[in-house]
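Sanity check

After download, print the first record. It should look like this:
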Amino acid sequence: MPTLLSNAMSIQTLLKCKGYDASFILPNTPVDIRKVLPAKYMKLLPQVKGNPEGILNYTNLSVLYNKERKLPFVSAYNIDGSSKSTTVKRTSFRKDERLDDDLQLDNHFYDLKKDITEFEIGHMSANNEMAWGKQAQVQSYQTFHFPNSVPQAERLNTGIWKGLESYIIKESAGQTNNNRICVFTGPILKKNDPPYVLSPDFRIPLLFFKVIVFEYKNKLYSTAFIMSHEQKLIEDKLIVPKMKPLSRGAVSPEAVLAFNDYPYKKVFQVNIPTLETLSGLHFTWKGVNQISFPQEKNQIEKIKSIGSSDDLRGRGMADAASRTLTPRKSIPATTLIMPG
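Expected structure tokens:
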């Protein structure tokens, strides 16, 4: 008899999946994944069995996939924090049968038979983020497909990146108006991303983003975060990076309670236009108000400077954030920059 796992991962089930729900928060204000990818990147979407648009749909999760880089452009997913589950099981990553095998990374790339791997298989939409609702276990299992993953330095995947995932879950379960949020996440893919020294044909993205869309006082707002594992890759001599800094100013903000206590916001929160310019993707939707604020000069370079072994492990992150902004001073406990 088929198990819940085999049913959740079967091609028959996947072909029926509707994917990310653009109207998940406010029905009259859709936040469409199709708006994210500019026309010039559409040709890089793969042929997907059962979806002529080339979108990989799972349950409340959709992936726009770059067939040349063998990485996602973006994973878009819905979270309802009012029905969070804490009992879901994990499984192993596998290829998506709707996509050609040779377009996907696999266990051979990660060489998981070793005791110590160069990379972890980094969830974009994480299994614990998708553990909500009546289909919590199905949604969690379906995140374990390679198209929803990116190689991440071990310390990043289990350190500050995981911390941001946990923060998003906590906030969606507690402080937003209706507990529903939409999240867009992925690697920032650049033409000059450095080659992986053990497989030079594969270029490693250095930066990762998350865009959160949520409701406050019957309006939708968006904010963005960027993180890096560059320093860890340098430490391990896995890359020779070359990347130019980018920063962009914005207007003065006000504050609200939602998403207000992420401890490293001062370092990792960025303006949406900064992310759009850096990634080449679009995170601007009609009816969604972007949270904007004066950014630190060379903000991306500051983000990239966090990522040593200790930083990515999560140990001493407050110190890491502090020395990135002001080498000998600590960051004051400020409210996350949000709308009022």
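If your output differs, re-run the checksum step. Summary of this record's structure: Residues 105 and 146 are 6 Å apart (CA to CA).
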